[in-house]
Amino acid sequence: MRTLFIALIATLSIDAIAQTDASLFWRSDSLQVTEINSEEAVQYKKVGHHGPAVENPYMALRLYFNNSGAIDIYSKAKTGLELKKYLWYPSNEAIEKDNAGCDEYRVGKTVGLGGISLWDGEKEIKLEATKGRKATVRVIKGGHQMTMLSRGVMYKGELIDVEVTVTVDKSRWAKVEARAISKEYVQFLTGVNIHNGQSMTISSGIFSHRLFAGGIHPADVVEHPLPIYAAMNAKKRYWKERDITSDMLRLISKPTKYVKTYVAASCLRELELSEGKKLSEDEALNLARKILM
Fold first, then answer.
1. Are 69 and 164 in contact (CB under 8 A)?
2. pLDDT exceeds cutoff 70 at 2
3. 235 pLDDT band (50/70/90 cuts)?
């Protein structure tokens, strides 16, 4: 019986890993690696899909290899793994004929969905690494993980290191963790970016904050972008303040060295395929809220 139980747990773990993936490579040779350690902190244009990426069956996320601290979304129309096949950028033919996903999320100057900055009590402090940056991807029990370590970030007169880790399993939700390697406590900033015309909600229950934004992002890589829905669940034990700015549903942490959130996303194409019919704007929005909130 004990052997059977162990075998069952191993099977479940393998099944979860099979439904997740990670990707990291230099554009110069396109060879997959597990680590990129660079004294030059900004390698945005030289690293494939601009930084490490992970995916679950419903979405892919990437951490930009620059000072933004941002997390971007690759939206999927159907469940499955696409990251290694399309390397974040499927052709228009793949999108139209094979229902491949798409990159229509517009991060702009924000931290995107669940990305990390610091807060000095008055303003946002980006993760400007003066001593380089290291990206890693790895297989873990039940899924995949990516990490970005920013070294030598100036915060209140001290150079600190900040590590951001994103973990995916076969569920829709991804875990985002941030750690400060510092003498003193720091405050972190995170949230969900927003654009004009989007529906948005920021609310708090007894134990957690819930953030939701849904609608069309400004046209960037495609001519006619479709609505995208993004959400965050954040425990109050880590995050003490919430507010809405011109481009963010924002959370600010208590003084600490560690924070955690959970993020998820969907898009109109996924919802329509899952329902088997064309959805109105209100129908899609209500369905997305039901899935993500």
1. yes
2. no
3. very high
